[in-house]
Amino acid sequence: MPTRRDVLVLAGAAAALAATPVRAQDRMAVVATFSILADLARNVGGDRVDVATLVGPNGDVHVYSPTPADVKRLSAAKAIFVNGLGLEGWMGRLIGASGSSAPVIAASAGVTPRELADKHDADHATADPHAWQSVADVKIYVANIRDGFIRADPAGKDVYDANAKAYLAELDALDADVKAGITKIPADRRKVIITHYAFGYFGDAYGMQFIAPEGLSTDAEPSAKDVATIIAQIRREKIPAVFMENISDPRLMREIASETGAAIGGTLYSDALSVPSGPAGTYIDMMRHNVGEFGKALIR
After folding, report:
1. Which of 2, 71, 204, 212 has minimal CB crowding within 10 Å?
2. 104 or 223: which carries more pLDDT confidence?
3. 261, pLDDT greater than 90
4. Is the model's pLDDT at 122 over the cut of 90?
């Protein structure tokens, strides 16, 4: 595992390569579909890029409605970064409307997708798009973002390589800290209720179980039967806590907590960062915040 000194050395190498600042008007215009992806792109692109975000802090990418300003951003972009795995169902139409010929880079390319059975169609499985909840998968994102920048701006290759290497070292340290944080939670208490299935990759990577009434997307309203089933499961398995998400209406979680006596944990950041001054202003801050909230609610 890289030491803090290794991270600082790599960061210093990246800074040295970018020692001559790129004037704001000369930075490459790129677009990322949502705030988490934009943060990754800024870490890799550094001062050579100007990253515009379509779905900003605390925004819900599942139900986003594009605006005319988005069309303008895409038409000016030299590279477009999407998550892929079916997350941005509205993106194809938006790119078509913009007339953009910029390369479209799917940050999740190469990730092994989780698949969940469709509760309405037993023969159909749906890919889980929330791969950023595993730090190991985000390292794949970073490599794809780096390669996308180099494709669009070959002259910046050394800077993008150095920035990516430094950031990957930070992610290695984060991954180790997340694992250590979850290990402190008793194994029989690593089960929680969350609003929608955003944490499946986290659960697989770090050994937690997440149950959600809303499915993969926040645009799916749970039925009364679904909610009753979850309430019964909480009682049967003595699930200790329910958590709110920053992108979701908290009323359903409060109802479930009231019905079951489960504790209400803190707010989790799942599909969007907080504002920069908030507790989850970057991807790394988001992961650390969520692990901290799990610990506060589940460690006894």
Report:
1. 204
2. 104
3. no
4. no
Q: Say how far apart CA 20 and CA 276 lie, in whole Å.
A: 26
Give the count of alpha carbons within 13 A of 33, CB side only: 27
Q: Residue 136 has which token pair?
A: 């190991």
Write down which residue in 113, 146, 177 finishes a domain. Answer: 177
CATH of the domain at 223: 3.40.50.1980
Find the Cα–Cα–Cα–Cα dihedral 188, 126, 285, 190, rounded to 10°.
Answer: 0
Q: What is the side-by-side strand order in the sheet with 241-245?
A: 209-211, 191-193, 241-245, 263-268
User: Distances from the Cα of 224 to the Cαs of 62, 139, 267, 268, in angstroms?
Assistant: 22, 39, 24, 24
The pLDDT of residue 248 is above 90: no
Which residues contact residue 161 at a Cβ distance below 8 angstroms, ignoring those fewer than 6 apart? 146, 150
Query: pTM for the complete prediction?
Result: 0.84
Amino acid at 269: Y
How buried is residue 144: exposed, middle or buried, by Cβ count under 10 Å (0-12/13-18/19+)?
Answer: buried
What is the DSSP pairing of strand 79-82 with strand 104-106? parallel
pLDDT over threshold 80, residue 26: yes
pLDDT, mean of residues 167-183: 98
Cα-based torsion angle of the residue sequence 56, 270, 181, 143 in order, rounded to the nearest 10 degrees: -60
Please determine, for residue 47, whether its predicted confidence score (pLDDT) is greater than 50: yes
Per-residue pLDDT at 161 exceeds 90:
yes
Residue 248: which domain range?
A: 180-298
Whole-number pLDDT of residue 69: 95
H helical segments located in the chain: 4-17, 35-45, 68-76, 91-98, 135-152, 157-183, 200-206, 224-237, 251-260, 283-298
Q: Last residue of some domain: 177, 204, 220? A: 177
